[in-house]
Amino acid sequence: MSVLEQAIFADGVNAKERDGQSSVRIDATNAEPVPMAGPVPAAGPGHKAGPVRKDATFSNSESTEVPSEDSVVQIRRPSLMRAIPSSSIVAFHSELSNSVGVRTGNIVVYDHETLDEGHAYSPHDGIYTVPVSGIYVIVWETFASFHSYIQTFLVVNGAKRGSSFSDAQEAHDIHLVSSLVVLRLHQGDHVVIQVGRTSEINATMYGYSGYSARPTFSGWKLF
């Protein structure tokens, strides 16, 4: 063995002695289970217990350590607050109790109120005052009497927002027309049904409870 080889061999032996362990690789798949250690022998009379670490146990009241952000588990729960509606139910329905004579420009007064959630319709003047801003559905029905026609408009603050035309001129019968408008209304708006053109100066808007043939005016807030 050359001098260089002897030096390399001697250095390797010294390294193993310093480490105090062999360089054998252990395959974890074939490793034998390690038996558990037996009970810890009781301390003798002269044994003194070492100092107890304050952080050895977990205590909500005594722990003064502030955990780092990496060690804190962030628990995010869905909000338990329910969505509160901006208003309660808003809806109304009124109808004509009897046939009435109408002429161009008249506001139709549906005098028999059957529903008014929001207390916004007046059966005395036919005006619906919007209680809460939102999207509304407005529906109205018109009956033209025998051999006549009646045009009506949905009017909001003086502006026409919808129309209908009930024509019974060519029939010896009453004629029903129903109209529906979806629109945005604002609190305080005035909504009415106004008469447009008619076949006579004083046309008759038919209303007869015996046949459930009553002109109606209804509406409700969608959202």
Class from helix and strand fractions: mainly beta
| Beta-strand proportion | 25-35%
Do you know the CATH topology of the domain at 91-221? Jelly Rolls
Largest sheet: 5 strands, antiparallel
Query: What radius of gyration results from the CA coordinates?
Result: 46 Å
Helix content estimate: under 10%
Order of helices and strands: HEEEEEEEEEEE
CATH class of the domain at 91-221: Mainly Beta
Instruction: Tell me the total number of β-strands.
Output: 11
- Count of runs of 4 or more consecutive helical residues: 1
The CATH level-2 architecture of the domain at 91-221 is identified as Sandwich
Low-confidence stretches: 21-29, 52-85
Shape: globular
Give the strand line-up of the largest sheet.
3-1-11-5-8
Terminal-residue CA separation = 98 Å
Q: What does this entry show, briefly?
A:
The chain has 223 residues and is mainly beta. It has one helix spanning 3-19; strands at residues 91-95, 100-102, 112-117, 128-129, 134-144, 149-156, 159-167, 175-185, 190-198, 203-205, 216-221.
Describe the structure.
By secondary structure, this protein is mainly beta. It has a domain at 91-221: Jelly Rolls (Sandwich). The protein has one helix and eleven strands. A hairpin with a 2-residue loop joins strand 6 and strand 7 (159-167). It is globular and about 45 Å long. The N and C termini lie far apart (98 Å). The relative contact order is 0.19.
